[in-house]
Amino acid sequence: MSLDLLTYLFIGGSFVLYLGIAVWARAGSTKEFYVAGGGVPPIANGMATAADWMSAASFISLAGLISFIGRDGSAYLMGWTGGYVLLALLLAPYLRKFGKFTVPDFVGDRYYSSTARTIAVICTIVISFTYVAGQMRGVGIVFSRYLHVDIDTGVYIGMTIVFFYAVLGGMKGITYTQVAQYCVLILAFMVPAFFLSAQITGHILPQTGLGATLESGQSVLATLDKLSMDLGFSQYTAGKKSTIDMFFLTVALMCGTAGLPHVIVRFFTVPRVKDARTSAGWALIFIAILYTSVPGVAGFGRVNLIQTINGPENAGTEYAQMPQWFKNWENAGLLGWNDRNGDGKVQYAAGKAFEGKGKPAYAADDTRGELGQRLATNAVVGAEFDASKQPFANEVYVDRDIMVLANPEVADLPHWVIALVAAGAVAAALSTAAGLLLVISTAISHDLMKKTINPNITDAQELMYARAAAVVAIVIAGYFGINPPGFVAQVVALAFGLACASVFPTIMLGIFYKRMNTQGAIAGMLTGLVATIAYMWYFVWGGGTPDQYFMGISPGGFGTVGMILHFIVAYVVAQMTPEPPAEIQAIVEDLRIPRGAGSAHAH
Amino acid sequence: MSISSDNAQAYWRENLRIIMTYLSIWFVASYGCGVLFVEELNAISLGGYPLGFWFGQQGSIFVFVVLIWAYVASMNKLDAKYDVHE
Q1: CB contact under 8 A, B35 and A243
Q2: How many percent of chain B have pLDDT more than 70?
């Protein structure tokens, strides 16, 4: 069967499955819509959390990122898993006992203030929207490559699918769809990972494969180090970032993970406090299966890529001899070749082959060179290079995002594996998008309409608002998918920074510091928000340069500083203002004891 | 609530102690081995990996998984001891 037909079958089949589940698990009440009725078994919730959490970024981008930055990628691996330890130990059980529907619910009730609630609503919406834009884009990219439609059409298809199960099913529909999506995405990630690992190292498991010894007698990592150094890249197992920057970035990612509203809300769906702890454990197991395989996939992919492009002699390969995948991705605009020395060979080394950010810009009329390669308008002229560091000038641009998607083709795996990867990437993007859209619609219908603007609306009306808000959110997310902001990476860093500097500390103080009051909480949240946004703004858009970094901390790690400021300001202000009323202190006492959680209740 | 306030206080204190113990391990495995002392550990090799690199990209994640489940077990025991389980 042809690759195209297989891809249609796999993606089409998975859509039928998701829609079937959506129809079966329609939500009939606000409680079902918001927290799936509070009756999800912990293991199912763990799977749903894992699918919710692992987005297009984890599935497509993470291995690519690590493949290119080597050891510094540890910050992401540790940050995006270690956050679950914080969730399990510090937040999830207590929030479950508190038993409301949303993060703003907790903030508003614990700090007895609609101002605090509103700030939490704003944080929730900003964090979730920055995130969802990237997901829609991910769906578009996968469709454009595998179904040969343009990216915009891909985004429309994705919007339609999400519309069905998020709007109809609410949290109940999403949860059970996510269980199915987890199975699809983990299979899609692991099958090629096993193949690759077995092919390169003889070990089935990529976890041990990365440490294995190759036929050459060197380990995979030593080979990578040598290849990288020979071509002028930095050593794979050495770090480039300073220790303090790595430290702050890892903290920001961990606490940010624990403070992301769409992750937290998943722990409201289980029946008991004890289940909240267990389901964090299950979630991390399901996540760890993928995350511990990522470094292997990244390493094998890198070795494969370098060896395929530069050939066995490490001298480059004739363009005419390049495999089909090279040309496919070149056509998709994610690979580029600029024959700087005019020898007709593709050569990959350190440095830029294209001006600006290094990415080729192609004209609309698709100009081709003599050998059939695409000609970019920003190709670097001349072939200068530092001969003491590398054997030739770099002529290639490889987009980091194609590593996982191209891996099966680079390794020449069977067609069904490639089709499976496409279905997995779509599952990863859709499951996360749906979870985020639900959080946004809940923030609007429940926290804003019901709790702030008009408390008298009925359950049925609230449900209608929730669905309407979901529709609006899908349309906005689709807009961002079609017209993506040009700084996606920075925007995602901002989402983590905000979650780390505002949501995480305020919830923690609410649970562990009984004396924390409205004034302290509001001052703390605002301090964290303003400090983090201002710092990122200055360095991303305001013309700040790296030598001006505070203590050498890059914007991605500044959320940690924002969190420290949040704690200090909140504490000082709380000391200077009256302590919270007795009934609030009683609530805090109560949420520390597991017994009597009952079901998640509305009010 | 079925338990006295003294009991609740004692339960909470023990809970905090458990949390602190596990978070120290969490800190050492990730920030200690994966960030702060990564260069020192890289001098040691484990199954083809430099040890610091291994902790940063694999080991810390395994430790996290074990930690959560150990915490679940500790808390289930503690809940039963103070009779606050559901």
Answers
A1: yes
A2: 97
Kindly list the domain boundaries of chain B, sorted by start residue: 5-81
Contact across the interface for B69 and A281, Cβ inside 8 Å: yes
Q: Tell me which chain A residues have a C-beta less than 8 angstroms from the C-beta of B48.
A: 210-213, 219-221
Structure tokens of A594?
A: 């597991």
HSE-up of A465 (CA within 13 Å, CB side)? 22
What is this structure's pTM? 0.91
Model pLDDT for residues A34-48, shown as the tens digit of each residue? 877 777 889 999 999
Distance from CA of A395 to the nearest CA of B (A): 30
Question: Is B67 within 8 Å of chain A by CB?
Answer: yes
**Does B76 lie at the interface with A, CB-CB under 8 angstroms?**
yes
Q: Measure the CA–CA gap between A404 and A148, rounded to whole angstroms.
A: 19
Nearest residue of chain A to residue B45 (CA atoms): A211
Extract the tokens encoding A382.
């001349």
A89 chain-B contacts, CB cut-off 8 A? 19, 22-23, 68, 71
Token pair in block for residue A249? 């970035």
Q: What is the mean pLDDT of chain A?
A: 88
Structure tokens at B44: 């040691």
Q: Domain coordinates of chain A in residue numbers?
A: 3-25+39-300+415-591, 335-398
- CATH match for A3-25+39-300+415-591 among 1.20.1730.10, 2.60.200.30, 3.20.20.370, 3.40.50.620: 1.20.1730.10
Residues A215-262 pLDDT 10s: 788 888 988 999 999 998 988 888 888 999 999 999 999 999 999 999
Residues 191-250 of A with CB under 8 A from B: 207-208, 210-213, 219-221, 237, 239, 243, 246-247, 250
As a residue count, chain B comes to 86
Question: What ipTM was assigned to the predicted interfaces of this complex?
Answer: 0.95
For residue A159, which phi and psi values (nearest 5 degrees)? -60, -40
